[in-house]
TrEMBL record:
Top-level taxon of the source organism: Archaea
Chief location bin: membrane
Keyword tRNA processing: no
Pfam name, any one: ArsP_1
Compartment list: Cell membrane
Ranges annotated as spanning the membrane: 20-43, 63-85, 97-117, 123-144, 165-188, 194-213, 234-253, 273-290, 302-322, 342-361
GO cellular component terms, A-Z: plasma membrane
Descriptive protein name: Permease
Family the UniProt entry places it in: Belongs to the UPF0718 family.
Length: 363
C-alpha cells in the first residue's frame, strides 16, 4: 500500500514538473497577459449588444460564435452573462451560440491545446467550436424562436473605453500575440527568440506610454493577476491529481507506467474514432466539471492522447463538449431556459460533438 502511495505521489509530482517546464513560461504567461488585456481593454458590452432577435443573422451569429476569444470565460462564468442577455430579449439562436462558444474557444484553452496537443488539434478545436456554435444556434432558433421581436439588447448603450484609433488597439494585440507565438515556437533559435521578444516588448511599452492611461495599464495588470490567481492554482492542482491517478492506475495497467496507465485502461473504449468512442467522450465531457484549461492535460495525459492511446476523434469530442458543459452547468441552463429548450441544447451539444469527432478522426 505504501509503495503504491509513493508511486502515485511521485507520478503526480513528475507530471506537474513536466507541465511547468514545457508550457508555463513560453505559453501560459504570455497567454495570461493577452487574456488580461482583452478583459481590461475591450468592452464586453460592445459584443453583447449584437444579440437581439431583430439583429441580422450574419451579424449576431458571427459575433456570438467568436465571442469566447474576447470574453475568455469558462462554463460557469458564461452562465450569468447568458442569463442576462436571454432575459433582455436576445434571440434564442444567438444566445445559444454565445452560450456554447464562450467557453469553447477560450483564448487560453485554444493556445494551450495547440501547444500541448498539437497545432492540428488546436486549429480543429477552434474551427469546430465556431461552426458548432452557429449550427446549434440556428437549430435552436428554428425550433424555439420567439414570435415577439424584442430590441432591448440592441438598445444597450456602449461607451467607448478610450479615444484611441482602432489600429492602435489592433497593433497592440498583434504585438502581444507575436510575443506568444515566438516564445512558444520550437523552430526559432534561442538567441533570435530572445532578441525578437525584447524588441516586441519595447514596442508594446511604447504603445502603452503614448496611447494608454496609467489607470488602463493598472487595470490590465489587475485583470491579468486575477485571471492567474483564479486559473493557475486550479490548473496546477488538477495536473498533479491527474498524475496521482495515473500512478494509482499504474498498478492495474499492463505496462505499470504512470504516464500511460489510464490511457491503457481506457484505450478499448476511447482508442479509436468510432461513433461509440466519440459519443462516450462527448458524454464524459458534458458531465464532468473541468476548470478552464484543465481539459488539455485531461485529454493529453489522463486519457493518453499524447501517448497515442486515445483516438483523435474522441479527443476532439471531449474538447468540444467538456469546456462548454458540466452537470452543474446543465442544472442552471435548465432553470434559465426551461426543461424543453435545455434538453434540446444539451442533446445538440453531445450529438454534434460526437459527429464532429467522428468526422475529424476519420479524415
Amino acid at each position: 500500500m505504501s509503495g503504491l502511495l509513493v508511486t502515485a505521489l511521485t507520478a503526480g509530482f513528475n507530471t506537474l514538473m513536466e507541465y511547468l517546464s514545457l508550457h508555463v513560461l513560453t505559453c501560459l504567461v504570455p497567454a495570461f497577459f493577452i487574456a488580461g488585456a482583452i478583459s481590461a481593454l475591450l468592452a464586453k458590452e460592445t459584443i453583447l449588444k449584437y444579440f437581439g432577435a431583430n439583429t441580422r443573422k450574419w451579424i449576431s451569429y458571427s459575433v456570438a460564435s467568436v465571442s469566447g476569444t474576447i470574453l475568455a470565460v469558462c462554463s460557469c462564468t458564461i452562465l450569468p452573462m447568458f442569463a442576462g442577455i436571454h432575459r433582455r430579449g436576445a434571440g434564442i439562436g444567438p444566445a445559444s451560440a454565445f452560450l456554447f462558444s464562450g467557453p469553447a474557444i477560450n483564448l487560453l484553452a485554444i493556445v494551450l491545446t495547440a501547444r500541448v496537443l498539437g497545432l492540428e488539434l488546436g486549429v480543429a478545436r477552434a474551427l469546430a467550436a465556431i461552426l458548432m456554435s452557429i449550427v446549434i444556434g440556428l437549430i435552436m432558433a428554428s425550433i424555439f424562436e420567439r414570435g415577439d421581436r424584442c430590441d432591448s439588447v440592441n438598445e444597450i448603450k456602449t461607451i467607448a473605453k478610450d479615444g484611441r484609433p482602432w489600429y492602435i488597439t489592433l497593433l497592440f494585440f498583434i504585438l502581444l500575440v507575436a510575443i506568444l507565438l515566438i516564445g512558444a515556437s520550437g523552430l526559432i533559435p534561442t538567441i533570435t527568440k530572445l532578441i525578437a521578444i525584447y524588441l516586441l516588448t519595447i514596442a508594446v511599452s511604447i504603445l502603452l506610454i503614448f496611447y494608454y492611461s496609467r489607470d488602463e495599464v493598472k487595470e490590465w495588470g489587475h485583470e491579468t493577476w486575477w485571471l492567474t490567481r483564479q486559473i493557475f492554482p486550479v490548473l496546477l492542482l488538477g495536473t498533479f491529481i491527474i498524475g496521482v491517478i495515473g500512478g494509482i492506475a499504474s498498478g492495474f495497467a499492463p505496462s505499470h507506467d504512470p504516464a500511460t496507465a489510464v490511457g491503457e485502461l481506457t484505450m478499448p473504449y476511447l482508442g479509436d474514432s468510432s461513433p461509440a468512442a466519440c459519443l462516450l467522450a462527448s458524454v464524459i465531457g458534458a458531465i464532468l466539471y473541468m476548470p478552464t484549461l484543465l481539459e488539455v492535460p485531461i485529454v493529453g495525459h489522463f486519457f493518453g492522447y499524447t501517448s497515442g492511446l486515445m483516438g483523435a476523434g474522441p479527443a476532439l469530442s471531449l474538447l468540444l463538449a467538456g469546456p462548454s458543459m458540466s452537470l452543474p452547468n446543465m442544472i442552471v441552463i435548465t432553470r434559465v431556459m426551461g426543461g424543453k429548450r435545455a434538453g434540446v441544447y444539451i442533446l445538440l451539444v453531445i450529438l454534434i460533438s460526437t459527429l464532429t469527432g467522428v468526422l475529424y478522426g476519420n479524415l
